[in-house]
Amino acid sequence: MRFSQLFAPTLKETPKEAEVTSHQLMIRAGMIRQVASGIYDLLPLGLKVIRKFEAIVREELNKTGAQEVLMPSLVPAELWKESGRWDAYGKELLRVKDRMDRDYCYGPTHEEVITELVRASVRSYKQLPINLYQIQTKVRDEIRPRFGLMRSREFTMKDAYSFHATTDSLDATYQDMFNAYHRIFKRCGLTASAVSADSGAIGGSESAEFMVNAETGEDAILVCGACHHAANVEAAAISTPIFSGSESNAVMTNVETPNCPTIANVAAFLNKEESDTLKSLVLVNGKTATLVLLRGDHELNEPKLRKVLSAPDLRFATDDEIRELGLFKGYIGPQNLPLELPIICDQSVNPNADYIAGANTINAHTTGVVPNRDIPTFKVADIRNAKSGDVCGQCNAGEYDEQRGIEVGHIFKLGTKYSEAMNAVFLDQNGSSKPIIMGCYGIGVGRSVAAAIEQNHDEKGIVWPIPLAPFIVDVIVANPKESDHLGVGESIYKTLVDNNIDSILDDREGSIGFKFKDAELIGFPIQVVVGKGFKESGDLELRIRKSGEALAVKPKALLDTIRNLIDNN
Ligand code: ATP
Ligand code: MG
Q1: What is the pTM of this model?
Q2: How many beta carbons lie within 10 A of that of residue 350, not counting itself?
C-alpha cells in the first residue's frame, strides 16, 4: 500500500465526543467513523486490525477443534419465544417485523439459533461433543453506547457454543477454551486476566470473565492481596464478619427528617455517618415483595441477592408497589412495618448495634433501631458489593483491592438451560433421552482491539503490538523528489512485502515531520526512513515506535534486522 493512496483521514485534534483514549485515537488515526450513536464505519486501517485479531482468534480456536459456522443476524422471534427470552431480554433486543408482519430480532447473542441447529442434527451421545463458533455482527440496543467500539450497538463478537453428553466433557472443553483465550490475548500483546464472574440466575454453573486492566474500564474487579483471588464485583464474596459486644440499649425514637429521602440527606441532617444508618430497599420477585437491609454506606449486589433468594427475575419495586405496601419511598424501615414482609439483611449489619432507619411515615426516621431486638425475623446473607478493604471471602484473610477492568471475553458453563427450554436432547449410552449440556464462550472483537489501544499508547498515539498492527513497517521516503530516494524506498518496500512483512510506503510529498506524526499517531511498530543522509552514508534510519530507539542500518542488513525485531517481539 502506498500512503498517497491510503484512505485514512487522520485528525490533529482530539474529537470532543470521545471520552477514552482508545476511542480518541481510533478516530484520530482514521480507523473508524461514527454513523449514528454506537454504530460505526470501519475504515481500511481499522478493518485491517480487526481482521488480524480475528485471524488470531480463528487460529487458536481451530487448534482446539472448534469449527467455524456463520449464523444469521436476523432471527425469527419463535426461537426466542421457545427459550423464553423474547419477553425476558428487555429493550437491548432490537425487534423488527417483516413485510408479512412476522416478528424477528437482530441477534444480540445466538444460544437459540445454535441450539436449534444442534437439536435438528444430533441424536446420539456418539455425535457429541461439538464446539461451534462464529465471528459475526451482533446488535444490542445498548442504553448507553459509548467509548467507540468498546460499547457499541452493532459490534463483532466471536461466540462459541459447545454441546456435551456429560459434565466432564463440558469441563474439558471449558478448560480448553480458557487456555485458548489466554493464548489469544497474550498473542495480541494484551495483558488479560481471568476473574470469577456471576454465573447468572441458573446457579451452580461456573463462569469467568477475561479482563484487561484499564482505568477507564466499566467493570469493577476485586483482587485479594493475600490469595490473589480475582472476581468481578458481581461475584466477589465477602468474608462473614464476626461481631462482638453486647446489645445496644438505645431506645427507639422517631425524629422528624423533612426532605431527607436519601441516606446522604439523613446522615447529614442528623450529623451522623452513613454507616450509622440502615438502607431499606423493596425488591419484587413475581408476586413476593422482600425488604432488603444494608448498612447505609453499602451497595446492594443484585446478582448475589438473586442467588440467595433463588429469584432470577428479582427487580426493584415500583413507586406504586411501594405505596401499595403502605410504605413511603425514602422513609422505609424494618421496624413497625404496616404489613408483614420477608426481610433479608446484609451480613455487614451488626445485629446488636443501633441504627437510624426510616420511620415508615413521611419525613421521619427512627433512631436506636437494634436489628436483633426490633426486627421480628430476618435472614442474614452476603448481599452487598465488595469494595477495597473488605476481607476476601475465598481465603478469609486478605483484603480486597478494587481495580477497573474492560471485559473482553466471557466463558460460561450454561448447563441445560437452553436445551431443556428448547428440547435439544440426545440418547445416552443406555438409550435414555437427556438434555444436551452446553457451554458458551464470547469475545468482543472491537472491544479487544480498543482495549489493546488502552494498554498500548503514548502521548503521540497508538503503539501497536506487532500482531495487531495495521502495517508492521512504514517505509518513509523523506523527500520523494530527491534523486532516486523514491526508487530506494520502493525497492525496500517490495523486498519487505515479498517476504510477507506487511508494509506501507510513505511516498507523499510533505515534510518528514508530518510523516513521522502520522506514523506515530497510527502506531506502525517500525519505521524505515530513506532520509537526507542516505546518499552520503548509504544508511537507512530504522525507528522503533515502542522504545523510541533509532538505529542506522545498511539496506543489505535491513530484512534480517526487521525479522529479528518481529521474532523477538
Ligand atoms: P457487558 O457487561 O460489558 O455489557 P456482556 O456481559 O453483556 O458485556 P456478553 O454477553 O458476555 O457481554 O458478550 C460477550 C463479549 O462481547 C463481552 O465479553 C464483550 O467483550 C463483548 N460485548 C458485549 N457487549 C458489547 C458491546 N455493546 N459493544 C462491544 N462489545 C460488546
Ligand atoms: Mg451487556
Answers
A1: 0.89
A2: 18
